[in-house]
Write a structure and sequence with these properties.
Number of strands: 12
Helix content: 25-40%
Radius of gyration: 21 Å
Order of helices and strands: EHEHEEHEHEHEHEHHEHEHEHE
Largest sheet: 5 strands, parallel
Structural class: alpha/beta
Distance between the termini: 55 Å
CATH topology of the largest domain: Cobalt-precorrin-4 Transmethylase, domain 1
Strand content: 15-25%
Amino acid sequence: MTKQKMTLLLAAPRGFCAGVDRAIEIVERALEKFGPPVYVRHEIVHNAHVVGRLRDMGAVFIEELDEAPDDRPVIFSAHGVPKSVPSEAKRRNLTFVDATCPLVSKVHVETERHHENGLEILLIGHEGHPEVIGTMGQLPEGAVHLIETVEDARLYTPKDPDKLAFVTQTTLSVDDTAAIVATLEERFPNIEKPFKEDICYATTNRQEAVKAIADRADALIVIGSETSSNSKRLVEVGDRAGCRFATLANDAQSVDWAALEAVSPEVIGLTAGASAPEPLVQGVVSALQDRYDLTVETVETAKENVTFKVPRMLV
């Protein structure tokens, strides 16, 4: 049977960012240094394949610190943790390693600085996300107020409109955040904003790469987990850019191939969230080659050379 011709637009950059690379390396090095088991509070990054591989190596994933024994190392996830977590680890004399992404740590520092300067702080982000919980947990309860939507920004009433600052979650939609920021700046002209944008370079680059292929693609597959904020935002970006079918999938096995074929695409876009390993992308490429007479075109919108060092105790 003759296969249907298909063009695959492969977005670049895609997949792992420097913060994810560093977090995974921290767990791997901790296992080498201390031997298994090493305990990890929450998923080190939001990807089931990554978590599964590290679990097979001897990492034990827990929800809270009280699940960890006193005599084994604990690692805090890349999303960051409230200050109460390392404080409790110190109280118990635990050996712990903080794998918080440095770009998330930057937001924590900004938040504390604004608080020290007597400013009321607004955090643009998604309620319940570990990064948001960690950022709000840098300060006493009630010191940081969450803004999720433009409507929230329109309705918020500050104590003093001239003593306001905002920070953002690092994995948000660039366009959605810009609309929220514009509303805040229109209402509060003196609001302090980040010296450098809080949405991280990797989130921005991956969204721009999707925009570059979306107007040519009939369908878009984003490789990433349902719990991954930046991956879900890539689906939204593709959808808004006009793709008739934009879907999130953990891997090739979880792609809804019937729904994809129902769209009858001639051009498919493919990318991956910042916590999705490249082999999962290549698995989808292979699955597409099995189904179609595939021509692969890489569309590169930026080059990335960012790296972050692991903590000194693991060097």
